Amino acid sequence: MIRVLGMMSGTSLDGVDAALIETDGGRIGGFGRSAYKAYSANEAGAFHAALGRWPGEAGTAEAAALSVAAHAALAAGFPEAELIGYHGQTLSHDPGGRGTYQAGSGADLAQKTGRPVVWDFRSEDVRQGGEGAPLAPFFHWACADWARRAGRLETGPAVFLNLGGVGNLTWVDPSAPAPEAPGACLAFDTGPANAPINDLVRAAGRGARDEGGALAASGRADAGIVADFLRHPYFSRKPPKSLDRDAFAALADAVKPLDLADAAATLVAAAAGAVAAGLAHLPGAPGRVLVCGGGRHNRAMMAALEAALPCPVKPVEAAGLDGDMLEAQAFGWLAARVLRGLPTSGPSTTGAPGPVCGGRISYPRSA
């Protein structure tokens, strides 16, 4: 077991999560402390300006440098970490097209922190024909294994729902010998989650997010817009499948004429409806859905999920896990797997033709 610092900056563009995890890249030995660094308004603005762009295009070098600096500053508070897992900041994701781009050099971060860094987790999966996302599912399998051993989760398959900028769903069977084993995992992106809500609130000058879902809770969803949204062919497409942050820009355009509260309520209803549509692709009906990511703090979102899904919806804390830090922990665990040459994705999670060990390892030059 080694101590790894996982670091994640998601498509919600709000800041950097960092969390220690003790692992051998297979089982989870334990969880350590964590921290969060919010982006300043200028930093968030620079990332927003670079969204949808590719290496060498305007603003991407600035975004990459900002990402490395923010992560290095946060990593300085974790001197005990022996290895760092660095996701970088996704600016573009186009599997089957131009590929995937997470801004930020792990080599630069290794030099700034003086520790080895595993990074560029998605490119190899895309190169081999996978979607490159989602990448947390194998870790969800490890979480279910840990929670069962701790007596915090019942036997049988478990379902994790991560609500970041984009939503993704993972069905796991922790009785399987490994996450890459047949039948161990099925995962896919469900649809937009926090990103369009955050963008709506930000554009209205009302902050970075709908705190607690108060705005959405005060509005009324437009059922016609939600119904049109759910007719999109993506929802009937069989998984694995993944989405870019702004894949459903038409939804954001559709809510523009609405009152701000009604627009927020409509976006919440659309996100919940997309999750409900996703359940039809699972191998069986879930006993409950465990929610992680920032979206579980949105009370309107959780209420919409409870209304739309045919099973209980609970935050992952119900299984003894930290829903705010799960993705950061995931990239720490994945970093340990890359170090050992173990798969980080596979056919049932990204659609790659076989198990893929993604990620590059960079060492400080002094090492």
Work out the number of β strands.
12
What is the strand content?
15-25%
Gyration radius (Cα, Å) is 19 Å
Shape: globular
Share of helix, binned = 25-40%
Distance between the termini: 21 Å
**Count of alpha/pi helices:** 12
Helix-strand pattern: EEEHHEEHEHHEEEHHHHHEHEHE
Unreliable segments of 5+ consecutive residues: none
Averaged pLDDT, please? 94
Largest sheet, in brief, is: 7 strands, mixed
Task: Write up this protein.
This protein has 367 residues and is of the alpha/beta class. Helix content is 34%, strand content 22%. Strands 1, 2, 3, 4, 5, 6 and 12 form a 7-stranded mixed beta sheet that branches. A hairpin with a 4-residue loop joins β4 (83-94) and β5 (99-103). α1 (41-50) packs across α2 (60-75), α2 (60-75) packs parallel to α3 (106-113) and α8 (223-230) packs parallel to α10 (260-279). The longest helix has 20 residues, at 260-279. The protein is globular, with a radius of gyration of 19 Å. The mean pLDDT is 94.
